[in-house]
Amino acid sequence: MDFGRRLKELRKKAGLTQAQLGERVGVTKSVISFYEQQERSPSPNVLIRLSEVFHVSTDCLLGIERRKTLDVSDLSDEQVRLVEAILKAIREQ
Fold first, then answer.
1. All residues at 6 or more sequence positions from 1 whose CB lies less than 8 Å from its CB, including other chains
2. What is the pTM of this model?
3. pLDDT, position 70
4. What is the 3-state secondary structure (H, E, C) of the chain?
5. Tens place of pLDDT for every residue, the chain, 93 residues?
6. CATH homologous superfamily for the domain 1-93
7. What is the pLDDT of residue 1?
8. What is d(CA 92, CA 86) in angstroms, rounded to the nearest whole number?
9. pLDDT computed for residue 66 by the predictor
10. Distance from first CA to last CA of the chain, Å, rounded?
11. Hey, which of 6, 31, 67, 92 has its CA 20 to 30 A from 38?
12. Among 54, 42, 43, which residue's Cα sits nearest to residue 16?
């Protein structure tokens, strides 16, 4: 899947319009449309902001990495350990 389709898929999963996404990353709706249509490529700074909005790596956005990430930055150490234990249990099934 190319960057434009991946961006559109992530945007729709997040329930965002092109205008809303543009606001979050500091570009216009038109620029988001250009990205989705593969008519433009984002600058490194915009790419980083997009990855932060969607909680994925820039590699994931670019199609280099298929691994998903989980943002646990607002959880306590105990909560992170609990999430890790849940993931381990799921993987062992």
1. 9, 63
2. 0.71
3. 78
4. CCHHHHHHHHHHHCCCCHHHHHHHHCCCHHHHHHHHCCCCCCCHHHHHHHHHHHCCCHHHHHCCCCCCCCCCCCCCHHHHHHHHHHHHHHHHC
5. 589 999 999 999 999 999 999 999 999 999 999 999 999 999 999 999 999 999 888 988 988 866 667 788 899 999 999 999 999 999 999
6. lambda repressor-like DNA-binding domains (1.10.260.40)
7. 58
8. 10
9. 66
10. 30
11. 67
12. 54
Residues 50-62 as b or e (16 or more Cβ within 10 Å = b): bbebbebeeebbe
Which residue type sits at 3?
Answer: F
Place of tokens 């670019």: 62
Q: Residue 71: its pLDDT value, please?
A: 80
Rounded to a whole number of angstroms, the CA Rg of the chain reads 15
Q: How far apart are CA 79 and CA 77, in angstroms?
A: 5
